[in-house]
Amino acid sequence: MVGELRYREFRVPLGPGLHAYPDELIRQRVGHDGHPEYQIRWLILRRGDDGEGGSNQVDCKAEHILLWMSNDEIYANCHKMLGEDGQVIGPSQETAGEAGALDKSVLGEMETDVKSLIQRALRQLEECEGTIPPAPLLHTVHVLSAYASIEPLTGVFKDPRVLDLLMHMLSSPDYQIRWSAGRMIQALASHDAGTRTQILLSLSQQEAIEKHLDFDSRCALLALFAQATLSEHPMSFEGIQLPQVPGRLLFSLVKRYLHVTSLLDQLNDSAVEPGAQSSTPEELSGERGRLELEFSMAMGTLISELVQAMRWDWASSRQGPSARPSCSIFQPRLADGGPGHPPAQALPSLRRSRRFRPRSEFASGNTYALYVRDALQPGMRVRMLDDYEEISAGDEGEFRQSNNGVPPVQVLWESTGRTYWVHWHMLEILGFEEDIEDVVEADEYQGAAVSGAVGVALPSWRWKPMAELYAVPCVLPEDEDAEESEHLSQAEWWELLFFIKKLDGPDHQEVLQILQENLDGEILDDEILAELAVPMELAQDLLLALPQRLDDSALRDLLNCHVYRKYGLEALAGQLAYPSLLEAQAQPQESADAARVEAKEAPTQCPNTPLQHLVEGYGLAGKIFLDLEQALSSEGPRESEVKPLLLQLQRQPQPFLTLMRSLDTPVANKALHLAVLRILMRLVDFPEALLLPWHEAMDACMACLRSPDTDREVLQELILFLHHLASVSRDYAVVLNQLGARDAISKALEKHLGKLELAQELRDMVFKCEKHAHLYRKLTTNILGGCIQMVLGQIEDHRRTHRPINIPFFDVFLRYLCQGSSVEVKEDKCWEKVEVSSNPHRASKLTDRNPKTYWESSGSTGSHYITLHMQQGVLVRQLALLVAGEDSSYMPARVVVFGGDSATSLNTELNSVNVMPSASRVVLLENLNRFWPVIQIRVKRCQQGGIDTRIRGLEVLGPKPTFWPVFREQLCRHTRLFYMVRAQAWSQDIAEDRRSLLHLSSRLNGALRQEQNFADRFLPDSEAARALGKTCWEALVSPLVQNITSPDEDGVSPLGWLLDQYLECREAAHNPQSRAAAFSSRVRRLTHLLVHVEPCETAPPVVAAPRPSENRSHDWSSLATRGLPGSIMRNLTRCWRAVVEEQVSSFLTSHWRDDDFVPRYCEHFSNLQKSSSELFGPRAAFLLALQNGCAGALLKLPFLRAAHVSEQFARHIDQRIQGSRIGGARGMEMLAQLQRCLETVLIFSGLEIATTFEHYYQHYMADRLLSVGSSWLEGAVLEQIGPCFPNRLPQQMLRSLSTSEELQRQFHVYQLQRLDQELLKLEDTEKKIQVGAGEGGRGHERGTGEEAELEAGAALAAGAGEEAAEEEDENEDLYYEGAMPEVSVLVLSPRCWPTASICHTLNPRTCLPAYLRGTLNRYSNFYNKSQSYPALEQAPQRRLQWTWLGRAELQFGDQTLHVSTMQMWLLLHLNELKAVSVESLLALSGLSPDMLNQAVGPLTSSRGPLDLHETKDAPGGVLKIRDGSEEPRPRRGNVWLIPAQTYLKAEDEEGRNLEKRRNLLNCLIVRILKAHGDEGLHVDQLVCRVLEAWQKGPCPPRGLVSSLGRGSTCSSADVLSCVLHLLGKGTVRRQDDRPQMLSYAVPVTVMEPHTESLNPGSSGPNPPLTFHTLQIRSRGVPYASCTSTQSFSTFR
Length: 1692
Hints:
This protein is α+β, with helices and mostly antiparallel strands.
């Protein structure tokens, strides 16, 4: 199932070592659909490394997830929360009487006492105003605290007078009273979280509570809140530097947070009691709508204040919110455009080589490295494939040289402009410019890289349909109504309403007036405002009116919100009345930069006041600086002038922050610093000034305090100001503690010898706030963690209800949480380049992370430096040098770090460090809060007075950790739990009713579309969106696919059943109006959704080949899943394979005996292919699964049935090849049928059936080649189905034919040479006759003839050698007077041609005429000479044996007869005789009657030239030439009389012999593997031992091989075929670590032979035999008989 079921409880895996366990039912409510929902607490369990339970499991009750679940989800996941009747057990509610063991009468008396004590305490508190609190008051409060710790009395303390008492006590100036109030609050809050939250909320909502609380009282409440929320939201932000938030702002955040949690509880409890019949649904809906609006507004306020407290709005001041391009979050981003994808022109073009191979085509990195080393030449272009030190992946350069160093390759890189050394395997060769081609679409390059590893024949893994309907898993949303598209959505309107509610009275009424004027004067109350449908034009008018009415903080929120970015920019187009946010935020930095620039200039143009630079840098708004200075610099501060300026600064605090940040300017601005400090010192005296954001610019004060060059007078004024500020508000003492002011003050005191006024007091004051600083940090963590949990809860509610999220700034909060997800700078990529003072060729040693290498300078003392050019915007978290004490005088002793905007302006000293001789790592900089474009490290002095220096390494750590990793973990954890619970519930529905699987497509589509829309709306960048998509896919789709593809007790999975139904109704689905069409459409939508590409890394690592299947050694799954997703694709392909296997098995069982079995099987296979394309697209994984399914069905067939199937396929191919010779439309149809059959036959490759298929195909191919000759089609067929022949015998047959043709050409040259020799002898003889004194010419010719006859007769009589006889026969037809026929001899090897029977032997001396015998004898002589090798005289020589196989063309009158060699001999025999009996032919030829009758049949048919007459004297009949005079018209043209093809039967003796051979080999394999035990045997050794046992014995018993007949031969391919068979049966298994090792697995029944034994064979191998046939062609004019009796003339 989806998760893990232990102890009848469902455990959901959340990550490595993490599981979620349903622990407790918290509450119950009625959902939006009217069904009950239950909130379940899921505990997070951590598991030990061993993965087992027991002692290694730790229940972390502090870590939990609250999840709302439906009835079905609880039924499927939470078994212990179900009663005996199967219903959910509601939350337990204990009464007060059950919780406490007090009697009612006693409880009543105690309640009376509490009420009287409350009244007494209030009276005593009023009496002690301004005096020391009396002891009775403290005793009364102590007794009240004791009563408060009793839980049954909790209700009494909810009296409003208790809150008044606590407020008076907390605002008392006496510490003991405040401490007693804290004791009482802690006693009340000790019962449960609800009471604690209620007390805190009640106290925080008191009017002007901040005015009544001092620092200690506020800290007491904050400590209580920190304790209350510590266990509720345990979230760690370790390593993330949180901002310094003062207590006043923290208390405000606590109030907002408590208010939001209270409203959220009210929302959850508003429909807890569904039985409340008194309220109508309309009233309940209205009340819930009011609560939702109030909650959204409160949540927006909390997010706004939290963003400002965390300073996120200022951190991103220089970059506006970037919109993420809309693309699918469930698949890797594609390069080409289309719906949901960015345009193609935005992507960089790729370049690739036309000649050189990419790295993906190599099996290992070492092989590729060798290839690059051998192919790369100087001047070639290369591309970097991996990140390596200074060089990034994708950088291009020119190869220069290589050597034997490490790394060995030098390349001139374009990115750096200089050479850098890398490794061979990191480079991709592009070649010279003429070898490089531009690739427009990036996905073509990626597809080639993926498919290159598996072969070019496979289609692309990514399927992009033409219709683009299923290009992404989410169906495009429905078209919006035109009326709705013209109005703001509810979320957009509520976000705009948030700013309207922020306005003060007059401004608020003006905006409402604008609304009423545009809405026909309708009276607007809160309920109507929440449900307004606001047109876009009205929204733009409001956005024009709001900015001038909002303060600076609210204006920043408005400019950052979604509704302003969507509609406000259009409304403000062309209007410059309001500055943009970027301009407003850039002004302070520009003013500070201006101050720095002015400080460098000569003081010749000195302004009137030091603040004049700030006024000029800030523009018109900077006039407030001069006004403030003038109002504060008079003899007595004029409050009437200062307070309006302070109120203006509260609304727009930017000038104030600029004033404070001017302290972080060069030390030359002494006058400016003193003027600013005097202004700030006087501002602290005004209570209104304490509301300014001092904490946001306190880091500028710390920078001035830490700077070693700060003037003493400025430093004294700074300490006085900080002491005064911390004395007035201790919150800022806490802030100084968080900023590390204690150490900075100590260093300043040490530098100035303690002569700094109030410095010691300030340090002590800061030190005393240590525990408060810890409290503030904990509070900040708890509030942020609580807000993140509420945001995750809203996302979950959005998933469950499919309702929009209407919270203002929800996207802003998520954007800041996700910052750093996509722009994360690696440690070695913080800098662009590194420069050194000398020896630049060794600068790379600084960053190679090798402590044994170093950079050594060369120069004078103090002139050595290292310059870092930083990446834009990178804040250095840590900068360190690596040194070594062993360098002695080369080791640095004093290092100074400078920063600047360029290499020529390095004037700001950042730090100076003295290096100890024992140091190894020297930290130079830490946690910089400003970006320095250039940082220079200067070595001022070396140890022992050394001149040059050595630096072992340089470490630069980039930006500080962001919130993204923490938020990603929480987001993925909640998302995974939600969807895995839902997947389990859906799987339970499918298990109970398979028909519900038809609704899975709509369910999945809705869930995935919702996540897609959420990501497009709220998630800022691609990595965050892909993380969400990947989690959803893994948690929802992967478990569902696993469950619906898992077989049940009957061995059928739900998806398999659905696919079976689809295949059955496929024909009926062609009618679009039928139910079958609707059913098929649902199935296709589901499968298209499920096969959508899983999320993965853009550049996955090379994955090792998966372990081969144990039950199918021919499995193609390793090829199909290489580079593909694992879980979903593997389960889907496995299910499809099982469906195909069942379909094909059923077909084979029903139709294997049919005459048209092969055409029907091909049609069935084609239908399965079409169905696969319809369901899954043309994906290679499913095409291979289809082949595996067909192969699995074939493997289930018994041997004889499988042999019958293979024989039918071989017969069908033979018939189609011969039928294609007809030509025309019929021939083209035969070729099409042949092609379909060949596609089906390809499945035989690697199967056992391939052996029998090769056997039958070899027989039919041999008959076809010898009867009709070879053609191009034979080679084309073998090229396509070549892997189906394990012994490759058909391929060898074609090679044998080509070799025979080459011999025939050589023989033709040989004949011409012999003829030339004979003619030369005749010429010599004539010359001798002319010179001699003999008789006349005629007598000489006769004598010569007689002499020749005598020589011949002597040779025959004397029985001279074989060579003499052959020479006589050779000369027999040299002077043949007729038309000399053309004879072609085919020399065929018996190793590949099935011609081993002796009954086919031909004796040319007795069966062929003399003019043919001479040609054959000369060919024999030629062949013997060509096969004789002097060096191999002892080896057995090849010998020729003539057979009856072959064909001939004879001329019979006007007819050309195409006959076999046997028919040619018979017809030529009738040239001499008028009639021939069949009995004499049998005696003359030695053939069997069946073979002779097969040849005679076509000759005596209606088309043949012979008649067969039955006579009593001749038992077989007499053959005569048919009288042509009786024919109505003379016959002409070509007549085909070659006997028809004879097809074998798998059920005959030959088929049984093949089965017996297979069983014998199985026995040998099993016995050999049994003898080797568990160690097993290598497959190559196994094959050798089996072949040796087959040839020599001693077991199986002797004599068995002889009974196999032609099946007695055995090859290595036969042995491997049997090994595959045994692997499929499970008898033999592969070892996991070494797949080539085979061992015996389990005992099975192997068909053993019973009667015959294996013959060990003869003592030695027989000489190889070479069978040959003849092919006779004519060189002359056909012979025409001049007599009435026609004769046969052989001419081919």
